[in-house]
Design a protein that fits this description.
By secondary structure, the protein is α+β, with helices and mostly antiparallel strands. Helices cover about 15% and strands about 40% of the residues.
């Protein structure tokens, strides 16, 4: 049996393993994350105590590690407070897989209450304009790195009509992003302090209900274009709102510190039994039958 917690950050759901004896294999992670067959999740993270706070190792639903997941980071912080590994009235430092030389390697988190966490983060740098061609149609967007590669696609029409599954999948695998691919964010800015976002995530290979690092990247694009100014309220597919604000008074993209606040809840605790590791192959007609990266 493997002890786990089920956590959710604005609709992004994860299985959290507190200091397991051994890390799960990619095959086991894929089985656990498969909805309908097992418990189901967008990813898995291992949480462990460290001398400076807590560390997390994050894995996408495809079983492979990712350097950063900001919704997962908020959930990791909430679980650390829940377990008593951090004082609820203080802050906790979350050590991520983003690399010791990057500004995202250690993220400060503060608990607002049992359902909300604020992260203190470096503002992304200025995004780079990039146009990709899919099916003979050119799509002008912006490329930037927020933990993992991202492509932000401004979508002026109604967001509910955006072809997130089809176009998002095609852009995610576009040669412009190499073998690693990119997460794809479809974004609208209805007014100066509002943003709407939908996301196709690599590693999950589908639309997810929320993406915290996508929110940060898309906010950076909106500020870069002069479409928005902080603070910004962000509506995600899961029905929640996140907020991006500045730690200081500057709406700059270079050198500033931003705050990402929003939903992060511990929703269940239990034990994963051997039956959770069953992972039959999908039928040939299912999109999931294609190999995920």
């Amino acid at each position: 049996m493997t002890e786990f917690y089920k956590v959710s950050g604005s609709g992004n759901d994860f299985l959290a393993l507190p200091e397991p004896a051994l890390p799960p294999s990619p095959e086991t992670i894929r089985a656990w994350c498969r909805r309908g067959v097992s418990l189901g999740a967008d990813g898995v993270f291992i949480l462990r105590r460290s001398r400076t706070g807590v560390g997390m190792d994050y894995y996408n639903a495809d079983g492979y590690p990712a350097d950063l997941c900001l919704n997962g980071t908020r959930c990791a912080a909430q679980l650390a407070f829940h377990l008593g590994w951090a004082d609820a009235g203080a802050t906790v430092t979350i050590e991520t897989g983003a690399g010791a030389t990057t500004a995202m390697a250690a993220i400060i988190a503060r608990r607002l209450d049992a359902t909300r966490i604020t992260l203190e983060l470096p503002a992304p740098g200025a995004p780079a304009a990039l146009t990709v061609q899919v099916g003979g149609i050119f799509h002008a967007g912006f490329r930037l790195m927020v933990g993992v590669p991202r492509f932000v696609l401004p979508w002026p029409e109604r967001l509910e009509e955006a072809p997130v599954e089809s176009l998002g999948r095609a852009i995610r695998n576009h040669p412009a992003f190499g073998e690693a691919g990119a997460n794809v964010n479809f974004v609208r800015w209805p007014d100066r302090h509002r943003m709407e976002i939908r996301t196709f995530e690599r590693g999950v290979e589908a639309e997810t209900l929320s993406c915290g690092s996508g929110v940060l990247a898309s906010t950076a694009v909106g500020v870069h274009l002069g479409k928005i100014e902080l603070p910004v309220r962000v509506a995600v597919q899961g029905g929640f709102e996140l907020e991006v604000n500045a730690l200081d008074t500057l709406d700059t993209l270079d050198g500033a510190r931003w705050l990402l606040s929003g939903d992060a809840r511990v929703v269940a605790q239990g034990a994963l039994l051997p039956g959770a590791e069953v992972d039959p192959p999908p039928p040939a007609w299912s999109p999931a039958s294609s190999v995920m990266r």
